[in-house]
Amino acid sequence: MKKEEFKKHKLPETPGVYFFLDKKHTTKILPKKESILYIGKATSLKDRVGSYFNNDLINTRGVKIQSMIENVKDIFFLKTNSVLEAIVLEAKYIKEFQPYFNTKEKDDKSHSFVVFTNEEFPRVLIMRGREIDNNKILKSFGPFVSKAELIEIMKIIRKIFPFRDKCDLPPKQILGREFLTMNLKPCFNYQIGLCPGVCIGKISKKDYQNNLDAIEKILSGENKKLTESLEKEMKRSAKEKDFEKAKEARDKIFSLNHLKEISLIKNYEEETENINSFRIEAYDVAHISGSSRVGVMVVVESGEIKTSEYKKFKLTENTNDDLRGLQEILERRFAHKEWKFPNLIVIDGGNTHLKFAKNILKNILPKKEFEEIKILSVVKDDKHRAREILFESAVEKLEKEKHNKLIILANSEAHRFAIAYHKLLRNKIKKR
């Protein structure tokens, strides 16, 4: 799709969910699964979708994104009342349609879910897909791409519909005066209004279930149904002269209707790219005078440290030459074609190390793959703190500016991990 064609769609400056399609779509109902290339969310549909049609797309988004846009024939969108709604619907539709270019959402094990535990008073927890035990889970919602987004969502929801998360219940349900005579204390979350007081009998099983039902509707993108249900409850309570309950329902309606004013103002969509998670790999070498030489690889993906993908390399040569060590790490790492390919590589050292690493990668990678990778190096001061980030191209400069904090994080984490592995190996040798 060309920029001129995009402008014809006249997308609104409101939150919502957008669909990139490879076929023309003429109805107002959801497109067919086979025509959907990609699904995303936006705080402003006009600005977010428009960013895909900038002249410098290949440098700002990469080859894969450009190839996707070249295949886009139409755009479908749904407006939402809040960013929260947009995030929920994005997760819902990605799970339902599994679009080709939403590659990272297909691996549910690494993404976040909201789960209700299978208990008398279910906990509401955020869990990774790989952590979920279906025997202990009543319901789950997701996957959500960004854990940071999901945490913000649940903070907002919890203020309206309090729930139990990590607190333990007494052996038996203890109520009222009996609780007080045992000198038990309610959890901290109850004291700050985020837990309804399950442990002290402040909420009935029915009312607690009503909170869970409300949370389920929000996480299923059914805010309208929830609001209608609360309006009926408010009118019924007022008619029965239960004004306290009517006020409670009214306050919840107000909060739901004003989610757009309080919801996810940080705009995480600019920090986390949905079409392929941005993956940073950092490498480092550790040794003492050439002995017990080790190398490591650490991973920061979508702004999060991924310790499960850290790698250790026991280096084969005993030498003080860190460049030789870096070469061995790069050659062994990129021999593993099954490992996910990085968007950005971070190494330790100055211009010499940067040029050396580029030459190594140029020799071991196919031309197309080499051109897709950006390489930066971090120069340290005498206290081993990051002093400067070096780069060679304009594109690498852009990545440095976009991911500055994550680059330093990856570099420092690589140093920490390398030292830890070196010490472990050295201690093993001493014990022999």
Written description of the protein model:
With 432 residues, the chain is of the alpha+beta class. It has 4 domains: 102 residues, GIY-YIG endonuclease, CATH 3.40.1440; 113 residues, no CATH class; 45 residues; 153 residues, 2-Layer Sandwich (Nucleotidyltransferase, domain 5), CATH 3.30.420. Helices cover 42% and strands 19% of the residues. A hairpin with a 5-residue loop joins strand 12 and strand 13. About 4% of the residues have low confidence.
* CATH topology term of the largest domain: Nucleotidyltransferase, domain 5
CATH architecture descriptor text of the largest domain: 2-Layer Sandwich
Number of helices: 17
Number of strands: 13
Alpha-beta classification: alpha+beta
| Rg over alpha carbons | 26 Å
Helix content: 40-55%
Give the N-to-C terminal Cα separation.
66 Å
Task: Sum up the structure in keywords.
single chain, alpha+beta, GIY-YIG endonuclease, 7-stranded mixed beta sheet, 17 helices, 19% strand, globular
